[in-house]
Amino acid sequence: AHLGAKAPECYFPKEDNSYLVHSTQYSSVGIIADLQLNTANARIKLPSDSISSLRVEVKYHKDDMLQFKIYDAQNKRYEVPVPLNIPATPTSTYETRLYDVEIKENPFGIQIRRSSTGRVIWDSRLPGFAFNNQFIQISTRLPSEYVYGFGEMEHTTFRRDLNWHTWGMFTRDQPPGYKLNSYGFHPYYMALEDENNAHGVLLLNSNAMDVTFQPMPALTYRIIGGILDFYMFLGPSPEVATKQYHEVIGQPVMPPYWALGFQLCRYGHRNTSQVEEVYNDMVAAQIPYDVQYTDIDYMERQLDFTIDDEFRDLPQFVDKIRSEGMRYIIILDPAISGNETKPYPAFERGQEKDVFVKWPNTNDICWAKVWPDLPNVTIDESLTEDEAVKAFRAHVAFPDFFRNSTAEWWAREIIDFYNNQMKFDGLWIDMNEPASFVNGTTTNQCRNTELNYPPYFPELTQRTDGLHFRTMCMETEQILSDGSSVLHYDVHNLYGWSQLKPTYDALQKATGKRGIIISRSTYPSAGRWSGHWLGDNYATWDNLEKSIIGMMEFSLFGMSYTGADICGFFNNSEYQLCARWMQLGAFYPYARNHNSAFTRRQDPASWNKTFSAMSRDILNIRYTLLPYFYTQMHEVHAHGGTVIRPLLHEFFNEKPTWDIFKQFLWGPAFMVTPVLEPYADTVEGYVPNARWFDYHTNYMKLIVAADDYQMAQGSLFWDDGETI
């Protein structure tokens, strides 16, 4: 009872020691150890079969970065095919390393200390370690209760609650909700140490998993495949540890200058005239605005690379507003219809290039159903959603973006659409978890029970429905760029990631400009090519507040170009909520107002003159500050780090900042403290110990602010804003 009401009913005994250390070799560049299954002590039966021989490798890559890896010593297992920026040869020395590592015995564990303080920052010498075919479990003590990261899922504070909470990670089409595994997959955390040091830890694994936080403080990982491949970044400050992580996964993409302007979208436009009406209203209200979108409405029956007859004049409208200085972004989904009765080159050329995901050892496509409707069918509005999907949705194939041929095919379709149908400046890629409207396949019959209902099912939203719930069957086969075959079970969480570079490359080939892509599904290193919006949120006050947490987390994850749908996607937004959201959203890196079909218009010009004036004023502040903000985006593109910066990253020596998540910084120098409560006209915030200036005094275009020592310094990055 003293552990708290959420404590588990059972635990691993101290004597549990599943593996014995057989041999250990220490060298100047790392450690190698061999482990043998301790059959005499294997009293606790865990899911699937144990692996008898394990190899442990510790590599001292740099003074501030090390890798520790545990894998099957005799049989090759799946490893994540995501390239990292790792030194070819170690550059650390014993005298300059920030860490010391020991392999512990009885029970086995890896222990890592910070050299300067002696503090243990990783200690897996805990009972319960298991390495089975479909169940891997490892725990570590944590140096403090201040832990941040792991995603993508919604939670209520930036700092994670360690009181026996378990969080699952597996990409799926799941709008944000408390503890619901959502669109992205980021097994990375940052931990603070009591001596004002910080470090980051990446587990490079792409299989479904969950993590349990414990008040010891401790952390337990449970993973259903692959290997254990950890990378630790020693900082010593939060911002420096974050930069070290970004150096390994790749620094964030540099957006074009126009992509920092205000943007408008909505799902449910019925024709070009409705888009044009919004544009004209925004121009008449003189509200700053740079980018317009169309959602899947512009497509013929939601087919990629087509234009619906109701939008036949969209290309001319786009040409007109682009000539007036606007930019245009269109949506693309990965699923391609195979049910067409007239020529559909995207599918036909895809089949010819063999780009679609198939059943293993066959030439058969694994069919699903997503957005595209069947041709020549009138939808019966009285049917349930499931009935309508079965009756009216087309069979679709999922491109396998790991294949080299898929990148070539995808680029051709994007370039052809740009050259022959309509112009665009950026691409928004959605539904790439990948999402389906049926479970597994159109027959609802996946063929491998062990993969779709694994012996250990992580703490996921769909645990009663199987891993294939509203996505592909886990046994389908994907082909990596080197020609090797992998199961979707292993690479499901990489599907969106695999689509990003081919899409970014194709956009730049089509337009000849830098451009921007926005992706819903992400994985570590996705930020090299893409931005991310926080998904299909709700028009509620708590979603307004949680958007700050989401942006700060994705700053840790290496994605600086982020933001939530301003005013909320689902449900009708109301006046005061939308007003406060416009004021906060004016400081999102990705500032887009977007909402769903069958809800009211919520763009800034749709309310009243007071709302328009407020929107104009707050966006003018944003636009005035864009040279500074653009400089910050270039800084993290060149060196890593955060643009939407938690206060603890800049004022780490002030412990109150460790818990702050309702305020944030733009880079090092500009603090935003928004109103997040209904009917409030004041706000309380923490002001760190520094010399601060009130922006609203409005007496300088160029602010040169002296510090306590009457010194000032700064930098400016400036270019044409769009060259690759």
Automatic annotation (TrEMBL):
Residues 640-699 form the Glycosyl hydrolase family 31 C-terminal domain. GO terms for molecular function: alpha-1,4-glucosidase activity; carbohydrate binding. It holds the Pfam family Gal_mutarotas_2. GO terms for biological process: carbohydrate metabolic process. Residues 252-632 form the Glycoside hydrolase family 31 TIM barrel domain. SUPFAM superfamilies: (Trans)glycosidases, Galactose mutarotase-like, Glycosyl hydrolase domain. InterPro entries: Gal_mutarotase_sf_dom, GH, Glyco_hydro_31_AS, Glyco_hydro_31_C, Glyco_hydro_31_CS, Glyco_hydro_31_N_dom, Glyco_hydro_31_TIM, Glyco_hydro_b. Residues 43-209 form the Glycoside hydrolase family 31 N-terminal domain. Keywords: Glycoprotein, Glycosidase, Hydrolase. Belongs to the glycosyl hydrolase 31 family. This is SI. It comes from Cervus elaphus hippelaphus. The lineage of its organism: Eukaryota, Metazoa, Chordata, Craniata, Vertebrata.
